[in-house]
Design brief:
The complex is a heterodimer of chains A (134) and B (74).
Chain A (H helix, E strand, L loop, with lengths): L2 E5 L5 H19 L3 E4 L3 H10 L4 E5 L2 E2 L2 E3 L5 E4 L10 E5 L4 H10 L4 E3 L6 E5 L9
Parallel strand pairs in A: 1-2, 1-3, 3-7, 7-8
Antiparallel strand pairs in A: 4-5, 5-6
Chain B lengths: L6 H12 L5 E5 L3 E4 H10 L2 H26 L1
Antiparallel strand pairs in B: 1-2
Helix pairs in contact in B: 1-2, 1-3, 2-3
The chains are: A alpha/beta (134), B alpha+beta (74).
Chain lengths: 134, 74
């Protein structure tokens, strides 16, 4: 069984949208027989990355060139932890982490790192925030 | 050479932001979500959020023809 590690939070508008956008991904993954594990604290995320052979790690939240963040912008994976991503495929739906963390992760054995080299900027409509998928 | 900090560029971006509907916000990275009034204020004051807004708006303007071409080429 293939395993996916998912991180997502909803502590502000941006992360709320990312949280909601993950619903379809989780549904599709489970329909295809993947086991989806969710984690959002640094300790839990790092422990899971160390101990479990995830095929895919899917990060959703804030970030910068050197780190991926979780709840209340705590650092989940920093550039110094890049080796934790070794042997995995990563999709980091966070700002800018491709620039440095992504490159470092690949140099440390990450199979592939799909991410972004700039900030996420998107429009939201007040009345639709409660129904982000619509 | 025009720079993103130039007054002309800021005026252009402010003019674009003024067309935003009042119930719309722009979410900018980890800086947060901002409505029209807040964005205009940030641009005018030249804050980090303002600079990021200017950069993204100018990028949109510059990229629009290429995006339109890709969409119409199917």
């Amino acid at each position: 069984m293939k395993r996916l590690l998912l991180t997502r939070t909803r502590h502000d508008t941006t992360t709320h949208y990312l949280y909601e956008y993950c619903r379809e991904v989780v549904k599709a993954a489970e329909e295809k027989g993947w086991r989806v594990d969710e984690a959002n604290t640094p300790k839990e995320v790092q422990s899971r990355l160390e101990k479990t052979s995830y095929e895919l790690a899917f990060f959703n939240g804030h970030g910068n060139e050197e780190c991926i963040c979780g709840q209340d912008d705590e650092v989940l994976v920093g550039i110094e932890d890049a080796s934790l991503l070794s042997g995995k495929s990563v999709y980091s739906r966070t700002c800018a982490s491709l620039k440095k963390l992504g490159k470092e992760a690949v140099s440390k054995g990450c199979n592939e790192y799909v991410g972004y080299n700039d900030n996420f900027i998107f429009f939201t409509i007040n009345e639709m925030e409660a129904n982000a998928l619509e | 050479m025009i720079r993103l900090q130039d007054d002309y560029v800021k005026k252009l971006v402010v003019a674009r932001l003024k067309t935003m509907p009042p119930n719309m916000k722009l979410s900018i990275g980890s800086y947060g979500s901002f409505d029209k009034k807040e964005l205009i204020d940030e641009v005018v004051r030249g804050t980090k959020v303002g600079d990021e807004t200017v950069r993204s708006q100018i990028t949109l303007i510059l990229e629009a023809p290429f995006v339109a071409r890709r969409l119409t080429d199917g």
